[in-house]
Amino acid sequence: MKYSTDIDPDKTAKAYGYELHCSRKDSENLAYGIKGMKIEDAKKFLNEIIEMKRALPTIFHNRKRAHKKGIGPGSYPQKAARYMLKTLENAENNAEYKGFDTENMKISHISTYGGRVIKGIMPRAHGRATDKNTKTTNIEIIIEEVE
């Protein structure tokens, strides 16, 4: 599996979420929101979004988004946040396995992009059919120890 950046493997830990069934657009906004955060802060941020206590400011793809108090256009992308949290916890476990101090880790690289499209059809009247495809998302996270 190839990551989109090369970082020293002796100082970092990685995790990759492959073909996740969540919105690519919401994942991009989440990645922008947690990049550079410490792991504990990012986990707290994602849990607040899942519990709908804190709205995520929408930076990308923000047309016709409802405004939230104090942040402008925003939303609560719960499904994407669950997948992002799971991938982040996986990266944290990988760092712990490598022997790093997980309390002093920060997100140095996070990337989301479209994954495979799962083909499907929906039957219609008179023997016709329409495409009903499912888009997937890939998430990669690289964390490093702060000195």
Write the layout of secondary structure elements.
Elements: E1 12-20, H1 24-34, H2 39-50, E2 56-57, E3 67-68, E4 72-75, H3 78-98, E5 105-118, E6 121-123, E7 129-131, E8 134-145
What does it look like?
By secondary structure, the chain is α+β, with helices and mostly antiparallel strands. It has a single domain (14-145), classed as Ribosomal protein L22/L17 (Ribosomal Protein L22, Chain A). 30% of the residues lie in helices and 33% in strands. The chain is built from 3 helices and 8 strands. The chain has helices spanning 24-34, 39-50, 78-98, and strands spanning 12-20, 56-57, 67-68, 72-75, 105-118, 121-123, 129-131, 134-145. The strands form 3 sheets. A 3-stranded antiparallel β-sheet has the order 1-8-5, with helices on one face. It has a 3-stranded antiparallel β-sheet with strand order 2-4-3. Strands 6-7 form a two-stranded antiparallel sheet. The protein is globular and about 65 Å long. The two termini are 29 Å apart. 29% of the residues are buried.
- Please list the strands of the largest sheet in the order they lie side by side: 1-8-5
Kindly provide the radius of gyration, computed on alpha-carbon positions and rounded to a whole number of angstroms. Answer: 18 Å
Number of helices: 3
Mean pLDDT: 92
Q: Pick out the low-confidence regions.
A: none
Percent strand? 25-35%
The tally of domains stands at: 1
The succession of helices and strands, N to C, reads EHHEEEHEEEE
- CATH fold assignment: Ribosomal Protein L22, Chain A
- CATH-derived architecture: Alpha-Beta Complex
Helix/strand-derived category reads: alpha+beta
Write out the CATH superfamily name. Answer: Ribosomal protein L22/L17
Strand tally is: 8
